[in-house]
Protein: DoxX family protein
Amino acid sequence: MLNPLLMLDPRKPPLTPRNTLDDAALLILRLAVGGLLVIHGFQGLGDPAHRIALSRGFGVPFPEVASWLSILGEIGTSLAVVAGLLTRLSAVLMTILMTTTWLTSSLGKPLIGGGEPGLTHENSLFFATGALVLFITGAGRLSLDARFEAWARSQT
Structure:
């Protein structure tokens, strides 16, 4: 029987302090990665001309199309990751987007230093790494993915 409070799958291990902390950690990671990237996406939405100019400066082909795909991709994948909805798909798309962004903007530039103090161009790497972890692990039990999975199993 499914737990009506969280709709947890009874075939998975019962909630214990350890796996509850694991699920809480995945929720925190989803909120950090998705929450910060959605802000970045809305910043691009507020000034798309700036994003297009950056893309043009980096030599990106079709900078208008690429910029809009980037902005919409950042917002869409971020909202899905925060909600824990289609998390693995959203996370792999976010990983590809952020890796492409890093390669486009940072290829050939030093990660540390290079005329600027400290790390440079690390934001894209942070988002790509966090998204990769979520692709590997999934969203955890504190997500819409888990609820929909439990609901689907209860219907069979």
In short: The two ends are 13 Å apart (CA to CA). The CA atoms of residues 51 and 67 lie 6 Å apart.
